[in-house]
Every structure is written in C-alpha cells, then in structure tokens.
Amino acid sequence: MRVRERGLNFEEMRQVVNYHDKKTQQARGEHGGFIYKYEKSAEGVTLVVIAESKKNEHWLISGWRF
After folding, report:
1. What is the distance of C-alpha 43 from the center of its chain?
2. CA–CA gap between residue 39 and residue 8 (Å, rounded)
3. What pLDDT is stored for residue 1 in this prediction?
4. For a tag site, which of 15, 25, 29, 34 has the least CB within 10 Å?
C-alpha cells in the first residue's frame, strides 16, 4: 500500500485528523462532507493527511510526512 511507502500507518493518520494543528478545507466530498487537509507537527516532522469529514465520520484519502 502506498501509505506504508510514505512511512505512515492508519493509526497515525487518524491521530492527525483527530488532533490536528491546522485544518484547511479543500473541496466538497462524495459522502456529503468536505475534504480537508489536516496537518500536525511532531518531533520536527509534519504529518499531512487528506480526508473527507462529515460530522464525526472521516474517510481517509491520503497522507505523507514532510
């Protein structure tokens, strides 16, 4: 999976979505929510996750480290 190639796992991605430092709206999603870019800095690395969010539901799309 591409997530492993990028050095992330699903638990890290969920943590970024739930406890982000920055959230930027990108577009309207296919599940009736909005697609957001979530960012979280930790230990000199920034984790970025793209996910669709609707109320308390999240659909993870992609993620990477800076």
Report:
1. 18
2. 13
3. 52
4. 25
